[in-house]
């Protein structure tokens, strides 16, 4: 039975034709593996499998994922993220008797993630913000129509102004509406899917929110974690079930850091009622 392995053009370009062909021939690909996204076992000979290449400044690691969890792609991460992930994967594989990720031929250096705290990263909608606002990101489960959905709540630490402008004002929500997000007055229904955007969940952790690039090439990070964010097992299971994540965004001062999901829901309901909330449903790890 031929191996059901997918090596995307982007991955092939990074590792080279020779290594890609060896993978497809089964010379270097494992039979069984632990999915780099959902962390459950997979079998290259029994189910469609994606090759995922994580690229740091000096190191590259080739991992494997269920095709239903992640497409074959190249993921840019910091060297610190990559070395931490390798340690985690190797430890898990040793404990479970699984197959660790492979170190791939080192490609050209990748750009590092912007310097930020573990749960924030610099926003892309506006690069000319005097206050150097960052985006705070909170993950949680939200009950919609009687079913739990994985959600991300994004709130800047300062007002976001439109690029090229200065002075008072906050254009965070208008900028997102221009990108396809919808204002929401309540949390009673799942927002429409915003195609081209996606949420990258890899190695069992949250890495980035991706948006389309202007030249219709590979997606770029709208938000990227300086260090991968840990999500709960329940959140990851719900994301795997729905294969999508609901993203809510509100201006600074609307939500705050809520320690419990019930308080987070109350803050979201209040922001929606006040017309200070936009949302969209983003595919999980789309390309």
Write up what this structure looks like.
Helices cover 22% and strands 30% of the residues. The chain is α+β, with helices and mostly antiparallel strands and 287 residues long. The protein folds into two domains: 5-103, no CATH class; 120-283, no CATH class. The chain has a six-stranded mixed β-sheet. Strands 1, 4, 5, 6 and 7 form a five-stranded mixed β-sheet that branches. A hairpin with a 4-residue loop joins strand 4 and strand 5 (60-66). Helix 1 (9-15) packs across helix 2 (17-24). The two termini are 28 Å apart. The relative contact order is 0.15. Residues 100-114 have a biased composition (Low complexity).
List the helices and strands and how they pair.
Elements: E1 5-6, H1 9-15, H2 17-24, E2 32-34, E3 41-43, E4 49-55, E5 60-66, E6 73-76, H3 79-96, E7 102-103, E8 120-121, E9 135-144, E10 147-156, H4 172-179, E11 182-183, E12 198-202, E13 205-211, E14 220-230, H5 233-242, E15 244-249, H6 261-273, E16 278-283
Parallel strand pairs: 1-4, 4-6, 10-15
Antiparallel strand pairs: 2-3, 4-5, 5-7, 8-9, 9-10, 11-16, 12-13, 13-14, 15-16
